Amino acid sequence: KFCNLKVCLQCSMCIHFLLSENNGDAMRKRLAPCSRHKPYCKPVKKTIIETTKAPIVPLPFSQAVLAGNTLYLSGQIGVDPVTLQLVPGGLVPETEQIFQNFIAVLEAAGGSLKDVVKVTAFLTDFAEYSAFNAVYMKYFPKDFPARSAAQVVAAPLGAQLEVDAIAIINKC
């Protein structure tokens, strides 16, 4: 075996590696990712996030799951965390409550609405889409997350919408 150099395809950094004399892949191995760019398998820690500041319902799902630094927020409807009842008044107060619940769960995970990268809204009536957008823009006034919206036949408890989200929580 002898020492040789290889060049990272990503950053052109030269790195040493041992190459056996009878290795037929010598040229292919000369161009390879360095340890910084080489894909590697690292176990991702999964943490269940739960807070009493958002509704805790007796159903088989978590308020959120933190996998690595990605937070997956379960779908929320406009349920008050104290009464566990749908807030009255229709889509606007339901939307307000949903985002207040999201804020509570995000804070429990060490994040905020600024960390949200994707939102999915399920509305029972697309005629309410502009009302949803008006409330949405209070919580996301700029640097909008990616978003999808769909009309559904029904939402739990007769709610007018359900919203889920994904956030990146960087704790460095």
UniProtKB/TrEMBL annotation:
Q: InterPro entries, alphabetically?
A: RidA (IPR006056), RutC-like_sf (IPR035959), YjgF/YER057c/UK114 (IPR006175)
Species for this entry: Mytilus galloprovincialis (Mediterranean mussel)
* Gene Ontology, cellular component aspect: cytosol
User: Of which family is this protein a member?
Assistant: Belongs to the RutC family.
Q: Domain of life here? A: Eukaryota
Q: Which PANTHER family match?
A: 2-IMINOBUTANOATE/2-IMINOPROPANOATE DEAMINASE RIDA, 2-IMINOBUTANOATE_2-IMINOPROPANOATE DEAMINASE
Q: Which SUPFAM superfamilies match?
A: YjgF-like (SSF55298)
Name assigned to this protein: Uncharacterized protein
Gene3D superfamilies per the UniProt record, alphabetical: RutC-like (3.30.1330.40)
Molecular function, one GO term = deaminase activity
